[in-house]
Amino acid sequence: MRLETWFIQIRHFAQLIVTSLDGLAPAQDQPLCIVQVTSFKCGGFAMGVSTNHATFDGLSFKIFLQNLAALAADKPLAVIPCNDRQLLAARSPPCVTFPHPELLKLKIPIGEEPKPTVFEAAPEELDFKIFRLSPGDIANLKEAAKSKDGKSRITGFKVMTAHIWRCKALSHEAENNLDRLSTILYAVDIRSKLRPPLPLAYTGNAVLTAYATAKCRDLEEGPLSRLVEMVSEGAERMTDEYARSAIDWGELYKGFPHGEFLVSSWWRLGFSEVEYPWGKPRYSCPVVYHRKDIILLFPDIDEATSDGINVLVALPHKEMEKFETLFHKFLA
């Protein structure tokens, strides 16, 4: 299947999920998880799942799917979930020990609506495009990102995030201002960062937002190795104490992540590996949604035979043209 054809289809995937139930209040009374099954004339079917991120993160959602598959097969739960939310509760009293520029305090005058955040962009005309990177493209980026000392470990996620950061920052409407600071946000799983670590079966949201900030001039002129280092430093910053400080910050200020855009990866979550009574899914992917400041990474269409990455980007037309030019320029 051609990527363009598949993308036309994925935009219609929204018909296969239910995000809210009629008759219930939009926020407070909606279910935390809604599953819709759609049968097709060919005999196949699609399972669309809408969840609240407070209930699951990517890793714990896979546990949910594994247990759903086990119940459908009339078997015991595949994983006994750990639902102890106190493991990630704020300390008493809360103690913020780090500055958190990746978070923004929620200060809204009475009677005013909050401004759109990186997670809730205002509706506008957007172009949607998928940029596919083959395993060879990823290998070339890793080679280009090698530092002289060769000490830093370069992962596919880090080098892809650095590459996207450079393209997104320089395609911004204010890209001519090379002294402008650009801040990228990306999710970090804190299960292994905490002391003691969270149980492997923890099924809440154990993801916090890491960040990296640089001038656009450095993003344009600096080596890719330095950008990868900054992405690495953002993840390494997420120690036990930093994570606890961020949780306590949230308890005090009720704010939200603050940056130019967010990279969210579905690349290694393994939803398509779940074995249901009727077999494994042919494919598993996120549904396209109207957000210009969230860039999604997800597996190749033929993920069983390819280790490529698809990058889903939504931008206004002019920004998309610049992003596409830069994406291929820096990839060459």
From TrEMBL:
Family designation: Belongs to the plant acyltransferase family.
The species this protein was found in: Liquidambar formosana
InterPro entries: CAT-like_dom_sf, Plant_Fungal_Acyltransferase
Gene3D superfamilies: Chloramphenicol acetyltransferase-like domain
The protein, known as: Omega-hydroxypalmitate O-feruloyl transferase
MF terms (GO), sorted A to Z: acyltransferase activity, transferring groups other than amino-acyl groups
